[in-house]
Amino acid sequence: EGDWVTFCVADNGIGMTEEQVQKLFQPFTQADSSTTRRYGGTGLGLTITKQFAEMMGGTIRVESEFGQGSTLTISLPTQTKPQDAKAEPEPPDLLKGDGIVLVIDDDATVREMLKKDLSKLGYAVAVAANENEGIKLAYKLRPDAILLNVQMAEMEGWRILSALKNNSLMAHIPVILITMEEDQQKGYAMGATDCLDKSAVSSQLGAVLEKYHIGEDSSGLIMLVDDDDVFRESLIPLIEKQGWRVFQAENGQVALEHLDHKKPTLILLDLNMPVMDGFEFITRLQANEKWCSTPVVVLTARNLSSEEHAHLNPHVETIFQKDVYDNENLILSVHKLISDAAAVREKPEEAPKHEWETA
Fold this sequence. Notes:
Blueprint lengths: L3 E8 L6 H5 L10 H7 L5 H11 L3 E7 L3 E9 L22 E5 L3 H13 L3 E5 L2 H11 L3 E5 L6 H10 L9 E5 L4 H6 L4 E4 L3 H11 L9 E5 L3 H12 L4 E5 L2 H11 L3 E4 L8 H10 L8 E5 L5 H7 L5 E4 L5 H20 L8 H4 L1
Parallel strand pairs: 4-5, 4-6, 6-7, 7-8, 9-10, 9-11, 11-12, 12-13
Antiparallel strand pairs: 1-3, 2-3
Helix pairs in contact: 5-6, 10-11
């Protein structure tokens, strides 16, 4: 581009909201403010990159759509004149909540209205205009709730609801229908969590999301990582009966992608899985400073060698064999680990002592 060199990096990850983008280059912050408050910042990498770019007379910008991905572009002049870095103002605490809501509606005006209303309530919002986009985003994001207009053209809304409720990985996501009163009973029969009157959606949004605790603190959330649909479905009622919530992941890679958002209190982990098995997941987990202390309970059908036991033992709380484990022992173990985790979370941090205090 003439006297400029431009670098562009794009991904198709979960993307960011407008509020998150505004905070991206702030030092020691993260896109999700609730994660920052709980675990601290991720460092100075992007802040330093921005300062260097501006010191050379260049620019850096980010374009992102939540649910679709992000593009980062750096433009630098071929001839540079050193400039002083500009001080950045302190960012406002823009994102109050950390719940993800997916809106599926074929009316662009309604999608934008709901996105605006939900963003004001503190949710990260992704939108989809049709069945293909909706199912794809639901699978990718595993949102905390889905708002679905079932009165989309050609019965598309009903097909989406059916597809969601017949997929073991997405069936437990609360689906809130936007519909007329005469269709509500059909919606409940097909597995909808709740229904909103189409004529008064905006006034009901906050109350219904609060009713189902969408985006609230994830203490008591168990991440169940297993590629066996039947086993997961047999274990979920047992877990939910104790009052805990469950997030399902079919392999270690999916689990890693959702750790930051879901913030599990405990992980139930299979070892033999495609894409990323349990051994590699544990290795990646231990390499992540934020998550390495998360308790892990292994549930496996694998006959472990002494070397595999030696590899797992320092990093997992206990190992259950799938063919012989006892439900009661599993629940007791999970109860204890969750209680211990809660005690650690609630324990106030001690203020650092000065030398004169310890002398």
